[in-house]
Design a protein that fits this description.
Keywords: Methyltransferase, Transferase. The protein is α/β, with parallel strands linked by helices. Helices cover 42% and strands 16% of the residues. It has one domain: Rossmann fold.
């Protein structure tokens, strides 16, 4: 038992070190960091910018509350915090496992406040920050549920998680094939479900999310509501930060066609959406915010109170 615990702790430490050093190894010199950050300022109007806004638009209904405080988690160079700041949010702290890049981001005005934070052990008090944004970061965590509970501890109103969707909960055929093929031979389903186990170069397993998973999480700790939006943003390609997002561009028209088709199939339940924006509310949001979320395409799931508490 002790060996298992030691091995697990060693794995966690290795994972933190890999992620902490990732951007430092990619961009060791300050000039390299500055070049990347300047790219953030100049890529507006490009296909990459248009695709990134598919993610950021999911947060827009909440950004109308300008006085709300925000923490971004896994915001390596402050891109997420910068979006909130540019939309008038007045109190935003950018955080990542390493603050080496964020320090440079502050120098050039990308972020205003930053902190080095381990998502499993945040340094903030209970209920101290209104909203926490975890965009395209949850899938990097070695123990995502540990980070999820920690974010809920710190949040006063809610947390926003934007991540790829686990398809199996929304694809009965895939689940059926999984069950049948596992009966025939263990592991045979991997020949069909190619990305069943996905890993990234930084060393993490890609932990995709599902609606049901977040419902259960909220119900388990007696939270009042989960809001979920399905969307299809994953059409990035190398060089997209240099091509204008205008219909006269052939590559942009191709993306619009692919996205339109995927949106159609998702809207009719034929294929699951590529990604989910999930807002887990710690307190029941006011009616105005609920209406804004519904108008923006969110499905509101009211969690019934536990009758035994």
């Amino acid at each position: 038992m002790d060996n298992t615990k030691n091995n697990t702790e060693s794995f966690q430490e290795d994972s933190y070190n890999r992620h902490s050093n990732w951007y430092t190894n990619l961009f060791p010199e300050k000039e390299q960091k500055l070049a990347l950050l300047n790219g953030i300022k100049t890529y507006k109007g490009t296909i990459n910018h248009w695709l990134q806004n598919q993610f950021f638009e999911c947060v827009k209904p909440i950004t109308k509350y300008k006085n709300a405080s925000w923490l971004t988690v896994g915001d390596a160079y402050g891109h997420d915090a910068n979006y909130l700041i540019e939309n008038g949010v007045q109190n935003v702290i950018a955080s990542d496992i390493s603050d080496e890049f964020l320090a440079v981001s502050k120098e050039v005005g990308i972020v205003e406040q930053y902190s080095a934070e381990n998502a499993e052990n945040l340094s903030f008090e209970n209920n101290s920050i209104d909203y926490i944004l975890c965009k395209e970061t949850y899938h990097h965590f070695p123990r995502p549920y540990a980070a999820l509970y920690e974010m809920i501890r710190v949040a006063k109103k809610g947390i926003v998680i934007i991540e790829p969707q686990d398809p199996i909960m929304k694809m009965p055929f895939l689940l059926f094939m999984n069950n049948v093929l596992e009966k025939i031979k263990h592991g045979l389903v991997n020949k069909i479900w190619k990305n069943r186990f996905s890993y990234e170069a930084v060393g993490n397993f890609v932990y995709k999310v599902s609606e049901r998973e977040m419902e259960k999480f909220a119900a388990g700790i007696n939270l009042p509501m989960v809001a979920i939006k399905n969307f299809n943003p994953n059409f990035w390609f190398p060089g997209s930060e240099k091509i204008p997002a205008v219909k006269s561009e052939k590559k942009f028209r191709k993306i619009l066609f692919k996205k339109g088709l995927r949106d159609f199939l998702s809207n009719f339940g034929i294929l699951p959406s590529q990604s989910l924006s999930i807002i887990i509310f710690k307190t029941l949001p006011e009616i105005g915010l609920q209406e804004s979320l519904k108008n923006d395409g969110y499905k509101l799931i009211k969690i019934p109170k536990n009758p035994y508490l």
